[in-house]
Amino acid sequence: MQLWQLEPNLITVNAAISACANCDEWGLALRLLCDLSEPDEVGCSAALQACARAGLWERALSFLQQMQHRRLQPDIRSCLTPCIAELEQRGLLTQELSFLTGSPESSSSRPA
């Protein structure tokens, strides 16, 4: 964007993050997200999707926790469904998503 002397805004950065997620460029998606002063659901969901598609489940779950802390709702269809399916397949669903329900289970109860 600097080539045309344009200033990025939330819409253009979110579009770039989504494009990166679709092209499996999770690292670039995360760098773009970090450039936003106040990321929204669209950008966070796209970054979460990029991590999930790359198999970075712990990072994707960390994003879910950060989004919950910021009171942002991820896009269930594109983000949560693949994450939940993968965790369920690995037998980690209740352990990893206990933070959503406020369950007293903690990371210390996870198998090593």
What does this structure look like?
With 112 residues, the protein is mainly alpha-helical. It has one domain (2-103). The protein is 63% helix and 0% strand. The chain contains seven helices and no strands. The chain has helices at residues 10-22, 26-35, 41-53, 57-69, 76-89, 93-96, 98-101. The longest helix is centred in the C-terminal third of the chain and has 14 residues, at 76-89. Mean pLDDT is 78; it is low at 106-112. Keywords: Repeat. PPR repeats lie at residues 40-74. It comes from Polarella glacialis (Dinoflagellate). It holds the Pfam family PPR.
Q: Topology of this protein?
A:
Blueprint: H1 10-22, H2 26-35, H3 41-53, H4 57-69, H5 76-89, H6 93-96, H7 98-101
Keywords: Repeat
InterPro entries: PPR_rpt, TPR-like_helical_dom_sf
PPR repeats: 40-74
Count of individual beta strands: 0
Low-confidence stretches: 106-112
Mean pLDDT, to the nearest integer, reads: 78
Query: Could you give the distance between the termini?
Result: 46 Å
The value of Rg in angstroms is: 15 Å
InterPro entries: PPR_rpt, TPR-like_helical_dom_sf
Protein name: Pentatricopeptide repeat-containing protein
Keywords: Repeat
PPR repeats: 40-74
Provide key terms for this protein:
mainly alpha; repeat; TPR-like_helical_dom_sf; elongated; PPR_rpt; Pentatricopeptide repeat-containing protein
Q: Summarize this, please?
A:
With 112 residues, the protein is mostly helical. Helix content is 63%, strand content 0%.
